[in-house]
Write a structure and sequence with these properties.
Largest sheet: 8 strands, antiparallel, barrel
Shape: globular
Order of helices and strands: EHHEEHHEEHEEHHE
Number of domains: 1
CATH architecture: 2-Layer Sandwich
Number of strands: 8
CATH class: Alpha Beta
Strand content: 35-45%
Strand order of the largest sheet: 1-3-2-6-7-5-8-4
């Protein structure tokens, strides 16, 4: 059943040398066309990344990501492994890894769409969380004052298995992706009094976000290696 259910892939690519980072920068525009032609691809976002542990205004020019929503796990695995656009990215990158995920819960919109369809229950073990927001222009200064302390708290939290901040448009459209040991640990962080809880209240009270989305995922497997992700199973032959 799971082989034919909607599957999400998050691909990470690292380019170590400053001279090598020109290529992925231009791919933010050039890769859109070949990606749009892929069979079974329903939604795609190319993102840069931040230098902190979550929402962060300082870019990390060494790491880029591609997030895709596919019709099935089989299509996701086959296409990421063999499609020229992904092969080309891996050939240029010094390191790469793709996580394959299935949606356990989702609410909100991304670019006026609801891209994620829940197909599994919340897992008992590791859980991935994605938060995405478009910050209203009038709230940008207030938002970024809050974002730094949150990034520090996430970075200091030893329960977080993995975390990365991404962005479509710098300072305006932001994404965080994190992996937690279980739902209990993740919920405890979200509820704890501190910068995160206070920022959530400020966001709600001030209506800082024009659009937002929250999703939770079960982790299927991975293709490639990345610090913090080696404990998850590698993709099997399909």
């Amino acid at each position: 059943m799971g082989e034919t259910q909607q599957t999400v892939s998050l691909s990470l690519f690292r380019f170590d040398k400053p001279s090598a980072r020109i290529w992925p920068f231009f791919q933010m525009a050039l890769a859109r066309r070949p990606l749009s032609r892929l069979r079974g691809l329903r939604f795609v976002k190319l993102c840069g990344t931040g230098s902190g542990e979550g929402f962060t205004p300082v870019p990390n020019t060494a790491v880029y990501t591609i997030l895709c929503v596919w019709d099935s796990a089989n299509i996701a695995h086959e296409t990421v492994a063999t499609a020229p656009v992904f092969v080309n990215y891996r050939a240029h990158a010094d390191a790469s890894c793709t996580l394959f995920l299935q949606v356990a819960s989702a609410r909100g919109q991304w670019s006026h769409q609801a891209p994620f369809t829940p197909v599994v229950d919340l897992p008992d073990g590791p859980i991935a969380a994605l938060t995405r927001a478009t910050v209203r222009p009038h709230a940008m200064l207030q938002f970024w004052k809050r974002a730094g302390p949150i990034s520090d708290v996430v970075g200091d939290n030893q329960d977080v298995v993995f975390k990365i901040g991404m962005g479509e448009v710098p300072w305006v459209q932001q994404v965080t992706f994190s992996i937690w040991p279980d739902t209990t640990t993740m919920a405890a962080f979200a509820r704890a009094d501190g910068p995160h809880a206070r920022a959530i209240k400020a966001v709600r009270d001030g209506k800082w976000f024009r659009e937002e989305l929250y999703a939770r995922f079960r982790i299927l497997d991975r293709l490639g290696d990345w610090p913090g992700l080696s404990t998850f199973p590698e993709t099997a032959e399909r």
